[in-house]
RNA sequence: GGGCGAGUGGCGGAACUGGUAUACGCGCACGACUCAAAAUCGUGUCCUGUAAGGGAUGAGGGUUCGAGUCCCUCCUCGCCCACCA
């Protein structure tokens, strides 16, 4: 008989909801455990198998923790604002607000079907006004805290769609939608000053129980570098060029300066320059350069000298030329560098290209064949630094620069401030108001949420203005301070802001006054286990950490790291290839749930590979799990009959055989779940079940398991399976006559004495090669074992007449005879 | 160019702290059941060899009684970031 999954799933889904077994008491829970999974972006195509994979893996962990006695809270929501949803609406010619409702319904239905222990009563969606009211509130708190800034910035621009694009929309230098090369455009933007927390974001990493790969990615992204700021006077002007360098020790080798084309000094110098036209042309050309052209140009350096002005190298008072070149980025450091071609590959290439002088300041080894020399060595051509190594020279030159007022040591970060504004429609309106008299003011809190009006034309406008700018009904308002006429900000906030704080909302969904319910925050946060994809390694996870730090400084919470433990899961590919719509190889979970049931899908997904590494989906593979679950179903069905006939069946030799495996399985499954190694936990369950199912005696005999394990132990077997396959185990648990629910039972315990067998097999090697195995008592000593081993024919043959030089005996494992 | 990770049967993948390589599953072959097929069950399944044996964890070297695991050189693939001074 086949396991009737469809009926069973319906039955238990309803019962779980009715009896609220996945709804912990948020106020009174005794052992709270916040089991969080990264909430999905509800693409309208519905749930991807990748979502099902991530959520199942997270759910198994949560169910395990629940069985260990924790009050597990496992909420779910949707991250529905943002460009993906908006683009989909554009493509389908619908409205994002309508599309969102359709997607929401569909997604929650699919999420319901995968059998997770979700706390449905706390579900949320970021585009609900109840939710984004608090997103806006957070923006205002950040403003009050001095962490919001408005400044000019260059943004991605698609010349064909005539619109601003978010970084996520730029796919290898091209517009995601029309594949046109993306260029840059200067616009005034809102920023969150995440760089204020750079040091803390970096420093705390060490203490976190996170997947190592994510910590490394964050470390690299924050990109701390220690160096110095140095001022180079300009001969023709009072101004100085300030540069950042990590190699102040090479300053004697600075043979020219380079400014980024956008550097503000370039305009100030304009009147002093004799080749103004050429400079202007270069700047125009740079600005129109596409991202791809820039990447293609990495090898060939371009630039223009600012003729008529020169800089003074403070250490030797030599006059050196000033250039502009786009290999220097306006957004990093000070947007200007001292070029040291002898010790920097890019500077070397540039110097070669434009025939600029090259001076080595670090002596390379005699056999060194390259161009720029980056390694350590004694300083040369560097006056009072000569002979020192890099570190020594750095210390000395920084002190010198400081004493002479030319510079100081400085720490720089790769991390930039978080550009929060988007000139798009489908997002939370930024709650700021501009008044000509009073400048920028936050919207009054009583006005929140600033509702996103349902605009008919929500298309990006192409002027650099957001779609909301065409709705005077939206932007016309009064200044909260002087009550004069004022204008609302028409940009919306980045979706990453919505997703940076959703886990505070889950525990406090009441429409009450505060965003943060302090009692519950204390009880439930920080999150105990957070599981999600590694693609969020830097953005989402860094932003969430940043906000937590800011919230702590505001006194809203009393911790600074929001996720105590974090694990990233791998990716599911299909038959060796990444799934994509264009390849048409996307696995849709619904089909398989309909065909095999949710338990089978869940268990198969977890079986294909280690959860943290992902796996390769094969349609054929799922039948293995299908068979496994059906065998279990039939086993328990026949057990019912069997126990009627033989109520106290017990066979000591079967028990002796199975009990150690049974206890080993309890041990291994628990440990493997803790490590998220679900694939091997499932293998172990199969090994045990294969044994239980073996017939006792002849082929027609009853299953060995019946003779070996009692009712309670059969219940324990179901408990071990329960996190993986919640439906079938709940049904069988009931059939065994147990009290509802299997998911609220205590996790079985193993007994050390039952783990081991009296007899073990010892392997016999000669010169490290396997020559035989012997069955011996566990406590066998070296002498006894050696004697038995020498008696084996294959060992005798291998030893021949040679003398045994040495015998290696590893208790419980092997004997190795070393001969020559 | 930088960072991270991975290379094991026909396939997905196991292997504790260096100790029986290929667990578990898929596929395949043969057999049972069946009028037949599907489903199910049983047996077998790294290569080579009749066997004893020999060989094999991307390639090559090293350490060790013993290496998939540790060290060195190289090759291939995947992911992320990329002119970050």
Descriptive report:
It contains 28 helices and 32 strands. By secondary structure, the protein is an alpha/beta fold. The strands form 10 sheets. Strands 2-1-25-26-10 form a 5-stranded parallel sheet. Strands 6-5-9-18 form a 4-stranded antiparallel sheet. The protein has a 4-stranded mixed sheet with strand order 14-15-13-16. Strand 1 (32-37), helix 2 (49-67) and strand 2 form a beta-alpha-beta unit. Helix 18 packs across helix 19, helix 19 (598-607) packs across helix 20 and helix 21 runs antiparallel to helix 22. The protein is globular. The model has no long low-confidence stretch (mean pLDDT 90).
List the helices and strands and how they pair.
Blueprint lengths: L4 H15 L12 E6 L11 H19 L3 E3 L3 E2 L4 H10 L3 H18 L10 E2 L3 H16 L3 E11 L4 E3 L4 E2 L2 E2 L7 E10 L5 H8 L3 E2 L1 H11 L1 E10 L6 E6 L10 E4 L4 H6 L6 H13 L2 H6 L7 E10 L4 E7 L11 E4 L5 H10 L35 H14 L3 E7 L4 E2 L1 E2 L9 E4 L3 E4 L29 H4 E3 L6 E4 L3 E2 L1 H4 L3 H5 L11 H7 L4 E5 L5 H16 L10 E5 L1 E4 L14 H8 L1 H10 L6 E4 L4 H24 L6 H23 L3 H16 L10 H5 L2 H11 L4 H10 L16 H4 L3 E8 L2 E9 L4 H9 L2 H7 L4 E7 L3 E6 L1
Parallel strand pairs: 1-2, 1-25, 3-4, 10-26, 13-15, 25-26, 27-28, 29-32
Antiparallel strand pairs: 5-6, 5-9, 7-8, 9-18, 11-12, 11-17, 13-16, 14-15, 19-24, 20-21, 20-23, 22-23, 29-30, 31-32
The chain binds one RNA strand of 85 nucleotides through helix 7, strand 12, strand 16, helix 11 and strand 28.
């Amino acid at each position: 008989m086949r396991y009737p999954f469809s009926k069973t799933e319906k039955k238990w889904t309803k019962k779980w909801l009715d009896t609220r077994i996945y709804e912990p008491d948020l106020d009174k829970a005794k052992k709270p455990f916040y089991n969080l999974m990264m909430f999905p972006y509800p693409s309208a195509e519905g749930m991807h198998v990748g979502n099902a994979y991530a959520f199942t893996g997270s759910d198994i962990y949560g169910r395990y923790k629940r069985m260990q006695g924790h009050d597990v809270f496992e909420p779910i929501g949707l991250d529905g604002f943002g460009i993906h949803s908006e683009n989909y609406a554009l493509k389908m010619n619908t409205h994002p607000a309508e599309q969102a409702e359709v997607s929401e319904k569909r997604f929650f239905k699919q999420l319901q079907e995968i059998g997770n222990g979700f706390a449905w009563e706390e579900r949320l969606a970021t585009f609900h006004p109840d939710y984004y009211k608090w997103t806006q509130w957070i923006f205002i708190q950040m403003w009050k805290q001095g962490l919001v800034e408005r400044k000019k910035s260059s943004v991605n621009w698609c010349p064909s769609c005539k619109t601003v694009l978010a970084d996520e929309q730029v796919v290898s230098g091209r517009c995601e939608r029309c594949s046109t090369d993306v260029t840059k455009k200067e616009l005034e933007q809102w920023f969150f000053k995440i760089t204020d927390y750079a040091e803390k974001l970096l420093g705390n990493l060490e203490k976190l129980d996170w997947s190592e790969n994510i910590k490394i990615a964050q470390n690299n992204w924050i990109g701390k570098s220690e160096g110095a700021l140095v001022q180079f006077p300009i001969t023709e002007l009072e101004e100085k060029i300030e540069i950042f360098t990590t190699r102040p020790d090479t300053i004697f080798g600075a043979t020219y300066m380079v400014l980024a084309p956008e550097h503000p000094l370039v305009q100030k110098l304009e009147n002093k320059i004799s080749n103004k036209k050429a400079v202007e042309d270069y700047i125009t050309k740079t600005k129109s350069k596409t991202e791809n052209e820039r990447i293609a140009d990495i090898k060939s350096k371009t630039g223009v000298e600012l003729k008529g002005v020169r800089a003074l190298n403070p250490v030797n008072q030599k006059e050196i030329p000033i250039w502009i070149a786009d290999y220097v980025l306006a957004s990093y450091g000070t947007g200007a560098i001292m070029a040291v071609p002898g010790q920097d590959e890019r500077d070397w290439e540039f110097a070669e290209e434009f025939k600029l002088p090259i001076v080595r300041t670090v002596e390379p080894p005699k056999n060194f064949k390259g161009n720029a020399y980056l390694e350590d060595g004694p300083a040369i051509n560097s006056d009072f630094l000569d002979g020192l190594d890099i570190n020594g020279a750095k210390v000395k030159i920084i002190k010198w620069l400081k004493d002479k007022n030319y510079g100081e040591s400085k720490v720089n970060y790769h991390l930039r401030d978080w550009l929060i504004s988007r000139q798009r429609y489908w997002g939370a309106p930024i709650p700021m108001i501009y008044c000509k008299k009073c400048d920028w003011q936050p919207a009054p809190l009583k006005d929140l949420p600033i509702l996103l009006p349902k605009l008919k034309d929500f298309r990006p406008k192409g002027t650099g203005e957001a779609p909301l700018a065409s709705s005077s009904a939206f932007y016309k308002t009064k200044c909260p301070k002087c009550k004069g006429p004022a204008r609302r900000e028409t940009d919306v906030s980045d979706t990453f802001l919505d997703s940076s704080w959703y886990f505070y909302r889950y525990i406090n969904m009441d429409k009450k006054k505060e965003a943060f319910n302090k009692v519950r925050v204390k009880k439930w946060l920080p999150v105990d286990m957070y599981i999600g994809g590694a693609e969020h390694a830097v953005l989402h996870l860094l932003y969430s950490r940043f906000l937590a730090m800011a919230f702590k400084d505001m006194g809203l919470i009393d911790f600074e790291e929001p996720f105590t433990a974090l694990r990233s899961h791998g990716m599911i590919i299909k038959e060796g290839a990444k799934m994509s719509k264009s390849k048409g190889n996307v696995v849709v979970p619904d089909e398989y749930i309909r065909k095999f049931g949710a338990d089978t899908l869940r268990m198969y997904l977890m079986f294909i590979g280690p959860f943290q590494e992902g796996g390769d989906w094969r349609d054929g593979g799922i039948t293995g799990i299908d068979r496994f679950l059906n065998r279990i179903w039939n086993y328990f069905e026949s057990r019912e009959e069997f126990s009627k006939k033989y109520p106290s069946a017990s066979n000591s030799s079967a028990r002796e055989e199975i009990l150690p495996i049974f206890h080993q399985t309890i041990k291994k499954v628990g440990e493997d779940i803790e490590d998220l190694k679900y694939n091997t936990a499932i293998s172990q369950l199969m090994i045990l079940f294969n044994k239980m199912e073996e017939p006792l005696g002849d082929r027609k005999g009853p299953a060995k398991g019946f003779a070996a394990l009692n009712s309670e132990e059969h219940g324990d077997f179901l408990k071990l399976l329960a996190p993986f396959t919640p439906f079938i185990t709940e049904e069988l648990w009931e059939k065994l006559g147990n009290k509802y629910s299997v998911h609220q039972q205590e996790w079985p315990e193993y007994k050390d004495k039952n783990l081991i067998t009296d007899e073990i097999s010892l392997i016999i090697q000669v010169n490290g090669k396997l020559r035989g195995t012997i069955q011996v008592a566990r406590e066998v000593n070296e002498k006894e074992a050696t004697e038995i081993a020498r008696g084996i024919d294959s060992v005798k043959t291998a030893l021949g007449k040679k003398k045994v030089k040495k015998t290696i005996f590893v208790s419980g494992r092997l004997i190795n005879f070393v001969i020559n």
